[in-house]
């Protein structure tokens, strides 16, 4: 009976979100009410995070990943399995799909959308990806497009924040990277946080600042967003000591001649164990740190892993619930 009531609640939350049949390419495809609706639905689905609830029996999800992935692909696959649906995956399309025989991405998407009820696509070129999905006969979820956006990573990180603070409005978040040009997750997260009223600081070198088109959109939202440039490691750690959440979207470090110079910039955005420990000891406050992962050496002190400040592994469990919520809302239950 308890189960039946819980499923009734899930169905009612799905109806309220009103997202059936729609694609999700940008976090801005969702209204604020739909984002909060997905949070409520994800919380209602948490009891089945490690078991199964047969809400999507008979549905097929295709995962098409043109870039490597552990978390995004496997958490979507897990979410679909937990909901009773089936999964077909192409994780090496450049080698093992007909793309290797020069089939266009548009044709591939058109064909796969005849098999699957929903497609999750990751692609290195956001322009090609956005064009190709217009040929789909099924809704498409972005699993990360180029340097543009990674909306479901932002959804899961905002969900984790919401589950931690019970709100997003007014929470102080520093999004920090040695390169915010290419940080697709940072862009999606900044949009989402600004729209939900968080207090956002973007910290990066001025030479690698958030692209102007992203800043223009953020300004249009009218949220509380500011930029901090060219901090030293001391300055950066002073800044994050006053935050509720430090958000590390990671970055790809160049190889070869530029590698050493980039490593020096990365050092300025290194999250110290001592900074977080001091705030905990002296103020009794937790500055949470999350990283979208995968992380690379030199971004943070790994001793943070075993402190209450660590949120990057906590977010993994939440990632299944929020992706269950999204897939259920798109397919209807
Ligand atoms: N955070 C993230 O997108 O991880 P993967 O590249 O492993 O999917």
Features:
333 residues, alpha/beta, Rossmann fold, 2 domains, 5-stranded parallel sheet, 4-stranded parallel sheet, 14% strand, globular, binds phosphoric acid mono(formamide)ester
Written overview of the protein:
- The chain has helices at residues 2-17, 32-45, 71-82, 93-96, 105-115, 126-132, 151-165, 184-195, 212-221, 233-241, 259-268, 273-283, 314-331, and strands at residues 60-65, 86-90, 118-123, 140-145, 172-176, 199-204, 224-229, 245-248, 288-291.
- It has 333 residues and is an alpha/beta fold.
- It folds into two domains: 2-150 and 319-331, Aspartate/ornithine carbamoyltransferase (Rossmann fold, 3-Layer(aba) Sandwich); 151-316, 3-Layer(aba) Sandwich (Rossmann fold).
- It has a five-stranded parallel sheet with strand order 7-6-5-8-9, sandwiched between helices.
- Strand 5 (172-176), helix 8 (184-195) and strand 6 form a beta-alpha-beta unit.
- Helix 2 crosses helix 7 (151-165) and helix 8 (184-195) runs parallel beside helix 9.
- The radius of gyration is 20 Å and the shape is globular.
- The two termini are 19 Å apart.
- Residues 69-72, 144, 153, 292-294 line the site of phosphoric acid mono(formamide)ester.
